[in-house]
C-alpha cells in the first residue's frame, strides 16, 4: 500500500541539511504513485512541492502542502543504432549512477558530469553542467505530469528552452510539472571535452584519455574543491557565474588585471562568481552557523543548525558587497522553496 507520511522533517531530503517540516510527504516510486499524491493534494486543497535529491534547494520554512519525492527507478534502452543509444531513465535514479552506467557501457556525453549530486529528474531543470559539458547536450526529451490537468506531457529538447543553468522548468513551467522520466541520447563513439581548466593534467595521472579516466579525473577534482554534502551541508554552486558586456569587462580588467574571464562571444564575458566573492573578502568567512567554503567561494555551507533564512541573509550580504565593489549582480542558482 502507498503511504503518504505526515509531519516529517525534510532534513534528510535536502543537502543543506535544513531542519524544516513537511505536512505530507509522498515518496513515489511509480508514475501512478506520483498521480495519487497529486490527487491527494488536490482533494485536500493543498499545494504540491517536488523534492528530488534535494541538492539544489533551500527551504526557508515548514511546508504546509504535499512534498512529492519522485523516486522512479530504471534505465531502459529505447533505441539504438551504430552512432547512438537512447535510454529512458527514471527521475529518481541518482544522477551519478546513470553517469557510471553510461561510462561502464562505453557511452559518452555525460562523463564530464561525474560526481554531481541529485537525481536524474533534476538534471533538465537547471541543465546541470560541469567541465565544458551540459545535460542539454544529451537530453532527448522529458516526460512529466502537468499538475493542473494531471495529464502526461512530453517536451523535446528544443521545447525545454535550455540555457546556462536554466530551462523552461525554472521559468514558464516552474512548479507546474512533475518530471517522471528523462530520455538521453548517448553517442557510442564519443568525442571528448577536455579543454576545461586542469582536466587534461588530472587525466594524465590515470593514463590515457578514455571515458573511465575522464570520470576518475572529474570525481577527483570535484572531491578536492567541493565539500561533501554528507559531511557539511551545501548545495554546490550557490550563484550563477555572471555575464558582462565588453565595456564592463575592459573597465574591470583595468582595475583588477588578474580578473579571470571566459569570452563567450564578442558581446559576452563570463566572470567566475567564485573569484568575485573571494576578492570581496568572503572566502572562508563564517557568520553564525553558516558561511562561505574555504576552498570554493561559490559554495555556501551550513556548519550545523543554520536556517534557510540565515543562508539567504548571508547570500544577500554577499550580493550587496559584490554589487558595491564590481557593479555586478549575482543571481542565485539554487531554488528557494
Ligand atoms: N575562483 C576563484 N576563487 C574561488 C573559486 C573560483 O578565484 O573561490 C576562480 C578561479 O579563477 C577559477 C575560476 O574561478 O579558475 C573557475 O572556478 P571553477 O573551475 O571551480 O568553476 P566555477 O566557475 O567556480 C563552475 C560551475 C560548477 C562546476 C565547475 C566546473 C557554475 C555556477 N558553477 O564553477 O558547477 O562544477 O564550473 O565546470 O557554473 C554547480 O553548479 O553546483 C557546480 C558545482
Number of structural domains: 3
Describe the largest sheet: 5 strands, antiparallel
Structural class: alpha+beta
Low-confidence runs (pLDDT<50, min 5 residues)?
Answer: none
CATH fold label of the largest domain? Uridine Diphospho-n-acetylenolpyruvylglucosamine Reductase, domain 3
What distance separates the N and C termini?
29 Å
* Chain-averaged pLDDT: 97
Q: Based on the structure given, which CATH architecture of the largest domain is correct?
A: 2-Layer Sandwich
Helix and strand succession? EEHEEEEEHEEEEEHHEEHEEHEEEHE
Helix fraction by DSSP (H/I, runs of at least 4): 10-25%
Report Rg.
Answer: 20 Å
Annotation field: number of helices: 7
Number of strands: 20
Lateral strand order in the biggest sheet? 6-7-12-10-11
Which overall shape is indicated by the principal axes computed on the Cα atoms? globular
Describe the structure.
The protein is α+β, with helices and mostly antiparallel strands and 337 residues long. It folds into three domains: 5-70, Uridine Diphospho-n-acetylenolpyruvylglucosamine Reductase, domain 2 (2-Layer Sandwich), CATH 3.30.43; 75-223, Uridine Diphospho-n-acetylenolpyruvylglucosamine Reductase, domain 3, CATH 3.30.465.10; 227-336, Alpha-Beta Complex (Uridine Diphospho-n-acetylenolpyruvylglucosamine Reductase, domain 1). 24% of the residues lie in helices and 26% in strands. The chain is built from seven helices and 20 strands. The strands form six sheets. It has a five-stranded antiparallel sheet with strand order 6-7-12-10-11. A four-stranded mixed sheet has the order 1-2-5-3, covered by helices on one side. Strands 13-19-18-17 form a four-stranded antiparallel sheet, with helices on one face. The longest helix has 19 residues, at 308-326. The chain is globular and about 65 Å long. The mean pLDDT is 97. Uridine-diphosphate-2(N-acetylglucosaminyl) butyric acid is lined by residues 130-131, 196-197, 225-226, 236-237, 240-241, 260, 272, 274-275, 278, 283, 296-298, 333.
Amino acid at each position: 500500500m502507498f503511504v503518504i507520511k505526515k509531519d516529517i522533517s525534510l532534513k534528510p531530503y535536502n543537502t543543506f541539511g535544513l531542519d524544516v517540516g513537511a505536512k505530507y510527504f509522498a515518496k513515489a516510486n511509480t508514475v501512478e504513485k506520483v498521480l495519487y499524491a497529486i490527487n491527494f493534494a488536490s482533494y485536500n486543497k493543498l499545494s504540491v512541492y517536488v523534492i528530488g535529491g534535494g541538492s539544489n534547494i533551500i527551504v526557508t520554512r515548514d511546508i504546509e502542502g504535499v512534498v512529492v519525492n519522485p523516486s522512479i527507478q530504471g534505465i531502459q534502452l529505447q533505441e539504438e543504432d551504430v552512432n547512438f543509444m537512447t535510454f529512458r531513465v527514471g527521475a529518481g535514479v541518482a544522477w551519478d549512477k546513470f553517469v557510471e552506467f553510461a561510462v561502464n557501457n562505453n557511452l559518452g556525453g555525460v562523463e564530464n558530469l561525474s560526481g554531481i549530486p541529485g537525481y536524474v529528474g533534476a538534471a533538465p531543470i537547471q541543465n546541470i553542467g560541469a567541465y565544458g559539458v551540459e545535460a542539454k547536450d544529451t537530453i532527448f526529451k522529458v516526460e512529466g505530469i502537468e499538475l493542473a490537468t494531471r495529464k502526461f506531457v512530453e517536451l523535446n529538447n528544443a521545447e525545454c528552452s535550455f540555457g546556462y543553468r536554466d530551462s523552461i522548468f525554472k521559468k514558464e513551467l516552474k512548479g507546474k510539472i512533475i518530471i517522471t522520466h528523462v530520455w538521453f541520447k548517448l553517442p557510442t563513439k564519443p568525442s571528448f571535452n577536455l579543454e576545461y581548466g586542469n582536466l587534461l593534467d588530472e587525466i594524465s595521472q590515470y593514463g590515457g584519455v578514455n571515458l573511465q579516466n575522464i570520470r576518475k579525473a572529474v570525481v577527483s577534482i570535484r572531491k578536492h574543491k567541493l565539500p561533501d554534502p554528507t559531511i557539511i551541508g551545501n548545495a554546490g554552486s550557490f550563484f550563477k557565474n555572471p555575464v558582462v558586456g565588453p565595456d564592463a569587462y575592459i573597465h574591470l580588467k583595468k582595475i583588477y588585471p588578474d580578473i579571470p574571464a571566459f569570452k563567450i562571444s564578442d558581446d559576452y564575458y563570463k566572470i567566475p562568481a567564485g573569484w568575485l566573492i573571494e576578492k570581496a573578502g568572503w572566502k572562508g568567512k563564517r557568520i553564525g552557523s553558516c558561511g562561505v567554503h574555504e576552498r570554493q567561494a561559490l559554495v555556501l555551507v551550513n556548519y550545523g543548525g543554520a536556517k534557510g533564512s540565515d543562508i539567504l541573509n548571508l547570500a544577500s550580504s554577499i550580493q550587496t558587497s559584490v554589487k558595491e565593489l564590481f557593479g555586478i549582480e549575482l543571481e542565485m542558482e539554487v531554488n528557494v522553496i
